[in-house]
Predict the 3D structure of the following.
Amino acid sequence: QVQLVESGGGLVQAGGSLRLSCAASGRTFGTSTMGWFRQAPGKERMFVAAISWRGGRISYADSVKGRFTITRDNAKNTVYLQKNSLEPEDTAVYYCNIDPPSGRPWGQGTQVTVSS
């Protein structure tokens, strides 16, 4: 079973940038579409971005379009999320998973906190 480990979170001021990474171990991503999701305090986990196996299909939540960029390196079994122009509303725990998750287990996530 694929184990996913997210990293790269931290505390950043509004307007700043962060790059999140999601590395797979145990098995590769294969040809799965991979996604980033986030869960803010007191809210449900929501979709952020997704990328197909070869990167030909990419989608974003409206709230992050133009600010976030999802990429993947299949040779390294890693998915990235470049986050620019961060806003306090982006504060959340960020997770990666196969998209759609369809009941697959989640990793521990990485906390992103954006101060105003």
About this structure: The mean pLDDT is 95. The longest strand covers residues 18-25. The beta strands are 3-7, 10-13, 18-25, 34-39, 46-51, 58-60, 68-73, 78-83, 92-98, 110-115.
